[in-house]
Amino acid sequence: MMSGIDCATKLTEQSARRLKSQGVDAVGRYIGPAESWKTITRGEAEAIQRAGCRIFSIWETRPTRRAYFTEEQGKKDAEKAARYAGQIGQPEASPIFFTVDYDAAPDDFGVIRAYFQAIRSRSQKYRIGIYGSFRMIEDLRGKGLADFYYQTYAWSFGHESRHADIYQYQNNRMLAGIPVDLDRIRNPSAVWGPARSAVKHPAVSPAAVVPYPGHLIRRGSRGRDVVRTQNAVGAVPDGIFGPKTEQAVRAYQRRHGLVADGLVGPVTWHVLF
Protein backbone atom coordinates (compact mmCIF):
# COMPACT_ATOMS: atom_id res chain seq x y z
CA MET A 1 0.00 0.00 0.00
CA MET A 2 1.23 3.48 -0.87
CA SER A 3 0.82 6.64 1.17
CA GLY A 4 -0.78 9.57 -0.62
CA ILE A 5 -2.15 13.06 -0.20
CA ASP A 6 -4.37 15.29 -2.30
CA CYS A 7 -4.20 19.06 -2.23
CA ALA A 8 -5.21 22.24 -4.04
CA THR A 9 -1.80 23.85 -3.46
CA LYS A 10 0.52 24.22 -6.44
CA LEU A 11 3.71 22.33 -5.61
CA THR A 12 7.34 22.98 -6.43
CA GLU A 13 10.06 20.38 -6.55
CA GLN A 14 11.19 21.58 -3.12
CA SER A 15 7.74 21.27 -1.52
CA ALA A 16 7.20 17.89 -3.21
CA ARG A 17 10.51 16.70 -1.77
CA ARG A 18 9.37 17.79 1.68
CA LEU A 19 6.23 15.71 1.23
CA LYS A 20 8.32 12.79 0.02
CA SER A 21 10.49 13.07 3.13
CA GLN A 22 7.30 12.73 5.20
CA GLY A 23 6.54 9.39 3.53
CA VAL A 24 4.28 10.54 0.70
CA ASP A 25 4.45 8.28 -2.36
CA ALA A 26 1.80 9.92 -4.55
CA VAL A 27 0.06 13.28 -4.84
CA GLY A 28 -3.49 13.92 -6.01
CA ARG A 29 -3.78 17.15 -7.99
CA TYR A 30 -6.52 18.86 -9.95
CA ILE A 31 -6.33 19.09 -13.73
CA GLY A 32 -7.80 22.03 -15.63
CA PRO A 33 -6.87 25.41 -17.13
CA ALA A 34 -3.33 26.45 -16.26
CA GLU A 35 -4.53 29.84 -15.02
CA SER A 36 -6.69 28.29 -12.30
CA TRP A 37 -5.38 28.73 -8.76
CA LYS A 38 -5.63 25.03 -7.95
CA THR A 39 -4.72 23.15 -11.13
CA ILE A 40 -1.50 21.34 -11.92
CA THR A 41 0.73 22.45 -14.79
CA ARG A 42 3.10 20.35 -16.85
CA GLY A 43 6.06 21.92 -15.06
CA GLU A 44 4.57 21.05 -11.68
CA ALA A 45 3.88 17.47 -12.78
CA GLU A 46 7.49 17.10 -13.84
CA ALA A 47 8.71 18.61 -10.55
CA ILE A 48 6.57 16.21 -8.50
CA GLN A 49 8.00 13.26 -10.39
CA ARG A 50 11.58 14.49 -10.03
CA ALA A 51 10.94 14.57 -6.29
CA GLY A 52 10.14 10.86 -6.42
CA CYS A 53 6.34 11.04 -6.13
CA ARG A 54 3.69 9.74 -8.47
CA ILE A 55 0.44 11.53 -9.34
CA PHE A 56 -3.29 10.87 -9.49
CA SER A 57 -5.45 13.25 -11.48
CA ILE A 58 -8.70 14.78 -10.22
CA TRP A 59 -11.33 16.60 -12.31
CA GLU A 60 -13.63 18.86 -10.31
CA THR A 61 -15.72 21.83 -11.40
CA ARG A 62 -18.31 22.30 -8.63
CA PRO A 63 -19.99 18.86 -8.72
CA THR A 64 -21.66 19.57 -5.39
CA ARG A 65 -25.36 19.20 -6.20
CA ARG A 66 -27.71 17.06 -8.26
CA ALA A 67 -28.25 19.73 -10.93
CA TYR A 68 -24.61 19.50 -12.04
CA PHE A 69 -24.94 15.92 -13.25
CA THR A 70 -26.32 15.89 -16.79
CA GLU A 71 -25.35 13.94 -19.89
CA GLU A 72 -24.22 17.14 -21.58
CA GLN A 73 -21.99 18.02 -18.61
CA GLY A 74 -20.52 14.51 -18.69
CA LYS A 75 -19.56 14.86 -22.34
CA LYS A 76 -18.00 18.28 -21.74
CA ASP A 77 -16.09 17.10 -18.69
CA ALA A 78 -14.75 14.01 -20.47
CA GLU A 79 -13.43 16.04 -23.38
CA LYS A 80 -11.94 18.83 -21.28
CA ALA A 81 -10.36 16.49 -18.75
CA ALA A 82 -8.68 14.45 -21.50
CA ARG A 83 -7.33 17.60 -23.12
CA TYR A 84 -5.86 18.98 -19.90
CA ALA A 85 -4.46 15.59 -18.90
CA GLY A 86 -2.60 15.44 -22.19
CA GLN A 87 -1.24 18.95 -21.67
CA ILE A 88 0.44 17.98 -18.39
CA GLY A 89 1.96 14.82 -19.85
CA GLN A 90 -0.37 12.29 -18.22
CA PRO A 91 0.09 8.98 -20.07
CA GLU A 92 -2.81 7.41 -21.91
CA ALA A 93 -4.69 4.57 -20.17
CA SER A 94 -4.10 6.06 -16.72
CA PRO A 95 -7.21 7.20 -14.80
CA ILE A 96 -8.83 10.59 -14.30
CA PHE A 97 -11.02 10.78 -11.21
CA PHE A 98 -14.32 12.65 -11.74
CA THR A 99 -15.79 13.79 -8.45
CA VAL A 100 -19.20 13.52 -6.82
CA ASP A 101 -18.40 15.97 -4.05
CA TYR A 102 -21.52 15.85 -1.89
CA ASP A 103 -23.67 13.38 0.02
CA ALA A 104 -25.67 12.15 -2.95
CA ALA A 105 -28.99 10.58 -2.00
CA PRO A 106 -30.21 7.41 -3.75
CA ASP A 107 -32.72 9.56 -5.66
CA ASP A 108 -29.73 11.33 -7.26
CA PHE A 109 -28.02 8.16 -8.45
CA GLY A 110 -29.92 8.00 -11.74
CA VAL A 111 -28.70 11.37 -13.01
CA ILE A 112 -25.18 10.65 -11.76
CA ARG A 113 -25.16 7.35 -13.65
CA ALA A 114 -26.24 9.17 -16.81
CA TYR A 115 -23.37 11.63 -16.31
CA PHE A 116 -20.85 8.80 -16.06
CA GLN A 117 -22.39 7.00 -19.03
CA ALA A 118 -21.76 10.17 -21.03
CA ILE A 119 -18.16 10.26 -19.83
CA ARG A 120 -17.78 6.62 -20.87
CA SER A 121 -19.08 7.45 -24.35
CA ARG A 122 -16.44 10.17 -24.83
CA SER A 123 -13.43 8.70 -23.02
CA GLN A 124 -11.04 6.97 -25.38
CA LYS A 125 -7.55 7.82 -24.13
CA TYR A 126 -7.98 7.71 -20.36
CA ARG A 127 -9.55 5.34 -17.86
CA ILE A 128 -12.53 6.60 -15.85
CA GLY A 129 -12.28 7.11 -12.11
CA ILE A 130 -14.96 8.12 -9.62
CA TYR A 131 -14.42 10.02 -6.36
CA GLY A 132 -17.27 9.86 -3.89
CA SER A 133 -18.90 8.25 -0.89
CA PHE A 134 -19.19 4.56 -0.08
CA ARG A 135 -22.71 4.38 -1.54
CA MET A 136 -21.63 6.17 -4.71
CA ILE A 137 -18.63 3.88 -5.21
CA GLU A 138 -20.74 0.76 -4.67
CA ASP A 139 -23.47 1.93 -7.04
CA LEU A 140 -21.20 2.84 -9.94
CA ARG A 141 -19.10 -0.29 -9.42
CA GLY A 142 -22.25 -2.38 -9.70
CA LYS A 143 -23.22 -0.62 -12.94
CA GLY A 144 -19.74 -0.90 -14.49
CA LEU A 145 -19.54 2.84 -15.12
CA ALA A 146 -16.00 3.41 -13.86
CA ASP A 147 -12.65 1.66 -13.95
CA PHE A 148 -11.10 3.07 -10.76
CA TYR A 149 -12.60 4.06 -7.41
CA TYR A 150 -11.50 6.80 -5.00
CA GLN A 151 -13.58 6.75 -1.83
CA THR A 152 -13.80 9.51 0.72
CA TYR A 153 -14.61 8.70 4.32
CA ALA A 154 -16.99 11.68 4.25
CA TRP A 155 -20.65 10.69 3.94
CA SER A 156 -19.60 7.02 4.19
CA PHE A 157 -20.72 6.43 7.81
CA GLY A 158 -17.76 4.22 8.66
CA HIS A 159 -18.10 1.96 5.62
CA GLU A 160 -15.06 1.29 3.46
CA SER A 161 -15.55 -0.22 0.01
CA ARG A 162 -13.41 -3.21 -0.89
CA HIS A 163 -13.39 -1.80 -4.42
CA ALA A 164 -11.66 1.45 -3.40
CA ASP A 165 -8.34 1.85 -5.23
CA ILE A 166 -7.69 4.99 -3.18
CA TYR A 167 -9.22 5.71 0.23
CA GLN A 168 -9.27 9.27 1.58
CA TYR A 169 -9.31 8.87 5.35
CA GLN A 170 -8.66 12.38 6.73
CA ASN A 171 -9.29 15.94 5.56
CA ASN A 172 -7.74 19.29 6.36
CA ARG A 173 -4.39 18.22 7.77
CA MET A 174 -1.06 20.07 7.58
CA LEU A 175 1.90 18.13 6.21
CA ALA A 176 5.26 19.69 5.36
CA GLY A 177 3.57 23.08 5.71
CA ILE A 178 0.88 22.26 3.12
CA PRO A 179 -2.87 21.78 3.76
CA VAL A 180 -3.69 18.28 2.54
CA ASP A 181 -6.13 15.40 2.71
CA LEU A 182 -4.62 12.01 3.56
CA ASP A 183 -5.07 8.98 1.29
CA ARG A 184 -4.20 5.30 1.22
CA ILE A 185 -3.42 4.03 -2.27
CA ARG A 186 -4.21 0.35 -2.52
CA ASN A 187 -3.78 -0.04 -6.26
CA PRO A 188 -0.61 1.37 -7.87
CA SER A 189 -2.39 1.43 -11.24
CA ALA A 190 -4.51 4.31 -9.91
CA VAL A 191 -1.50 6.65 -10.04
CA TRP A 192 0.89 7.63 -12.79
CA GLY A 193 4.47 8.78 -13.17
CA PRO A 194 7.88 7.14 -13.36
CA ALA A 195 8.53 6.69 -9.64
CA ARG A 196 8.68 2.92 -9.18
CA SER A 197 9.37 2.39 -5.50
CA ALA A 198 5.94 0.83 -4.86
CA VAL A 199 6.50 -1.93 -7.42
CA LYS A 200 8.59 -4.85 -6.23
CA HIS A 201 10.70 -6.47 -8.91
CA PRO A 202 14.40 -7.31 -9.41
CA ALA A 203 16.72 -4.34 -9.62
CA VAL A 204 18.10 -3.54 -13.06
CA SER A 205 20.75 -1.16 -14.25
CA PRO A 206 19.55 2.13 -15.78
CA ALA A 207 20.75 0.97 -19.18
CA ALA A 208 18.41 -2.02 -18.99
CA VAL A 209 15.23 0.04 -18.48
CA VAL A 210 13.17 0.13 -21.69
CA PRO A 211 11.43 3.51 -22.12
CA TYR A 212 7.65 3.47 -22.45
CA PRO A 213 6.80 3.99 -26.15
CA GLY A 214 4.18 6.62 -25.41
CA HIS A 215 1.09 4.78 -26.63
CA LEU A 216 -1.10 1.86 -25.62
CA ILE A 217 -0.06 -1.60 -26.77
CA ARG A 218 -3.19 -3.65 -27.25
CA ARG A 219 -4.93 -6.23 -29.43
CA GLY A 220 -4.16 -5.36 -33.04
CA SER A 221 -0.80 -3.71 -32.26
CA ARG A 222 2.26 -4.90 -34.17
CA GLY A 223 5.99 -4.40 -34.13
CA ARG A 224 9.06 -4.35 -31.91
CA ASP A 225 7.27 -3.23 -28.75
CA VAL A 226 4.82 -6.11 -29.13
CA VAL A 227 7.76 -8.53 -29.41
CA ARG A 228 9.26 -7.07 -26.22
CA THR A 229 5.93 -7.45 -24.45
CA GLN A 230 5.48 -11.01 -25.67
CA ASN A 231 8.94 -12.00 -24.46
CA ALA A 232 8.24 -10.45 -21.05
CA VAL A 233 4.87 -12.20 -20.53
CA GLY A 234 5.87 -15.54 -22.03
CA ALA A 235 3.87 -15.37 -25.27
CA VAL A 236 5.12 -16.42 -28.71
CA PRO A 237 7.16 -13.41 -29.93
CA ASP A 238 5.64 -13.01 -33.40
CA GLY A 239 5.13 -9.25 -33.18
CA ILE A 240 1.34 -9.49 -33.49
CA PHE A 241 -0.80 -8.67 -30.44
CA GLY A 242 -3.61 -11.19 -30.76
CA PRO A 243 -5.93 -12.99 -28.32
CA LYS A 244 -3.20 -15.28 -26.94
CA THR A 245 -0.91 -12.34 -26.21
CA GLU A 246 -3.79 -10.49 -24.56
CA GLN A 247 -4.48 -13.55 -22.40
CA ALA A 248 -0.81 -13.73 -21.39
CA VAL A 249 -0.79 -10.01 -20.53
CA ARG A 250 -3.90 -10.39 -18.36
CA ALA A 251 -2.32 -13.32 -16.52
CA TYR A 252 0.87 -11.30 -15.95
CA GLN A 253 -1.15 -8.33 -14.65
CA ARG A 254 -3.06 -10.53 -12.21
CA ARG A 255 0.18 -12.02 -10.88
CA HIS A 256 1.58 -8.55 -10.23
CA GLY A 257 -1.51 -7.00 -8.65
CA LEU A 258 -2.34 -4.79 -11.64
CA VAL A 259 -5.68 -4.16 -13.33
CA ALA A 260 -6.05 -7.21 -15.58
CA ASP A 261 -7.40 -5.42 -18.66
CA GLY A 262 -4.99 -6.86 -21.23
CA LEU A 263 -3.76 -3.37 -22.15
CA VAL A 264 -0.09 -2.48 -21.89
CA GLY A 265 -0.14 1.11 -20.68
CA PRO A 266 2.56 2.97 -18.73
CA VAL A 267 1.95 1.22 -15.41
CA THR A 268 2.10 -2.31 -16.84
CA TRP A 269 5.07 -1.35 -19.04
CA HIS A 270 7.11 -0.10 -16.08
CA VAL A 271 6.46 -3.34 -14.22
CA LEU A 272 7.38 -5.40 -17.29
CA PHE A 273 10.63 -3.52 -17.87
UniProtKB/TrEMBL annotation:
It comes from the Bacteria. GO terms for molecular function: hydrolase activity. SUPFAM superfamilies: (Trans)glycosidases, PGBD-like. Keywords: Hydrolase. InterPro entries: GH (IPR017853), Peptidoglycan-bd-like (IPR002477), PGBD-like_sf (IPR036365), PGBDSf (IPR036366), Rv2525c-like_Glyco_Hydro-like (IPR015020). Residues 236-272 form the Peptidoglycan binding-like domain. Residues 18-173 form the Rv2525c-like glycoside hydrolase-like domain. Gene3D superfamilies: Glycosidases, PGBD-like superfamily/PGBD. It holds the Pfam family PG_binding_1. This is Glycoside hydrolase domain-containing protein. It comes from Sporolactobacillus sp. Y61. The lineage of its organism: Bacteria, Bacillati, Bacillota, Bacilli, Bacillales.
